[in-house]
Write a structure and sequence with these properties.
Number of domains: 1
Oligomer: single chain
CATH class: Alpha Beta
Distance between the termini: 13 Å
Structural class: alpha/beta
Helix content: 10-25%
Number of helices: 6
Shape: globular
CATH topology: L-arginine/glycine Amidinotransferase, Chain A
Order of helices and strands: EHEEEHEEEHEEEHEEEHEHE
Strand order of the largest sheet: 2-1-15
Length: 272
């Protein structure tokens, strides 16, 4: 498995306040946590690729949001719904092309879409959350750029409003073939029905572990996942379902910026 990450640099830290991070990160700890995170991925068998991203932008650590990678090795450059992140897709382009991905197109104003609002249900079905970061025009653009894919859109709840990040992946993450970790009470009913129709395996996340990123879990190998420390009830449920849970400390890289392991990584198809 190939995974693209974007390590932090000292020049990023000054952007924390304008980007809405909860607190100023300590760069030494930020860098140390990200290095340990990369080592955890490598120890799990992943080939870890490092991106340069957009210098001076702390949100660039969350490398999943600026693009959408397709199962066949294509990539769409998205247009983030957060104004301060608009430079990230083009900044990431050289890293994506160096990794062998084919750029299929990009979103243009007024289209917006965040990678965190997308979940591949299978190679031909993409779930997209209609959120404060992903608009109707952005969803239409994905349908245009993915003619062979069924793009299914679902309204996400208001919850904390436009000033807080609620992506589709804040509520559900894929764990492998037809398996997911999810908080069903906040999922759109049609997604719950769709998963039921497919007899999907669902590991439930309790309500008190949603805000602490319980549903944000990264699959790195068959029945092996990476999760942020804490959320012990969710982790116990994953173990009962037969998953090995690899835990990382994310006080600086995750909690201060509200981005879990799926946000910090961009899984890539193997080279053809």
């Amino acid at each position: 498995m190939r995974i693209l990450v974007r390590p932090p640099s000292p020049e990023d830290v000054g952007s924390w306040e304008r980007l809405g991070w909860r607190a100023a990160p300590d760069f030494a700890w930020l860098a140390r946590e990200h290095e340990a995170f990369r080592e955890l991925l490598a120890d799990a068998g992943a080939e870890v690729l490092e991106a340069r991203g957009e210098p001076g932008n702390l949100d660039s650590l969350y490398v999943y949001d600026p693009s959408l990678v397709t199962p066949d090795g294509g990539v769409i450059l998205l247009r983030p719904g957060k104004e301060e992140r608009l430079g990230e897709p083009e900044a990431l382009r050289p890293d994506l092309e160096a990794a062998g991905l084919r750029v299929l197109g990009s979103l243009e104003p007024p289209e917006t879409a965040d990678g965190g609002d997308t979940v591949w249900l299978d190679d031909h079905t993409l779930l997209v959350g209609r959120s404060y970061r992903t608009n109707d025009a952005g969803i239409d653009a994905l349908r245009r750029l993915l003619p062979g894919v069924e793009v299914l859109a679902f309204d996400l709840p208001h919850l904390g409003g436009p000033d807080e990040v609620l992506h589709l992946r804040s509520l559900i993450s894929p764990l492998g073939a037809n398996a997911f970790v999810a908080h069903r009470p906040l999922l759109p009913a049609r997604i719950v029905e769709l998963l039921g129709e497919r007899d999907a395996e669902i590991v439930g996340v309790p309500s008190d572990e949603v805000e602490s990123m319980g549903p944000n879990v990264l699959a790195v190998a068959p029945r092996v996942v990476v999760a942020i420390a804490g959320n012990e009830r969710t982790h116990a449920r994953l173990v009962r379902h037969g998953f090995e849970v690899l835990v990382y400390e994310g006080d600086e890289i995750s909690r201060k910026g509200d981005g879990g392991p799926t946000c910090l990584t961009l899984p890539l198809p193997e080279r053809g």
